[in-house]
Amino acid sequence: MADITIQNLYRQYKNDVYAYLISITHDKPLSEDLTSETFLGAIKSIAAYKGDSDIKTWLFSIARYKWYEHLRKQKKELTSDDFVEVYMKNKLNLEQSIITAELIRGVHKLLDKENEKNRSIVLLRADGYSFYEIGVKHGISESSARVIDFRVRSKIRAILKKRGYFYD
User: CB of 149 within 8 A of CB of 125?
Assistant: First the structure.
């Protein structure tokens, strides 16, 4: 990349990174700390950035890693259930609900009924990959990846709603 400076990146993307972290942590002070750590991480790894992904995607992946690192320090071990829980919380507007282990198992069972591509798209999104990156991986357009993710999540939500997990 031609003229990338951390100062310019910080000015241009700090609010986006902070908003992304708020959406996954639901904790303002933690998100502020992780935003700072994200840009410190970017300083350390800017030389390794090859431009294979959008700079914002790269920063979001650093932010996501910093958040995972924080969780690991607190919990010692993370499971895929932890990531699915946060993803489903964010995407299905469950801020008011407590996600139980039964619900998470139910989501996994419903995902297991999907074809491999659909399941992979949802799980990649849960891991924080951009729709662009998912599209490239599956040989589909970014908008197709969005539509598949939306439809699978909507389908899962409708099934869980019928089972009494959600209320309007």
Answer: yes
Other Cβ atoms closer than 10 A to 35: 24
Q: Looking at residue 71, what is its pLDDT?
A: 78
Q: How many angstroms separate the CA atoms of 104 and 101, rounded? A: 5
Residue type, 93: N
> What's the CA gap between 134 and 41, in Å, rounded?
24
The chain-wide mean pLDDT, for the chain, equals 78
Dihedral class, residue 164 (left if φ above 0, else alpha if ψ from -120 to 50, else beta): left
Global model pTM greater than 0.85? no
Contact 34, 14 (CB under 8 A): no
Cα of first residue to Cα of last residue in the chain, in angstroms, is 47
At the second CATH level, the architecture of 80-162 is Orthogonal Bundle (1.10)
Specify the pLDDT at position 151: 94
Higher pLDDT, 107 or 40: 40
Cβ atoms of 42 and 62 within 8 Å: the answer is yes
> Which residue type occupies 32?
E
CATH class of 6-75: mainly alpha
Spatial distance between the Cα atoms of 99 and 3, rounded to a whole number of angstroms: 45
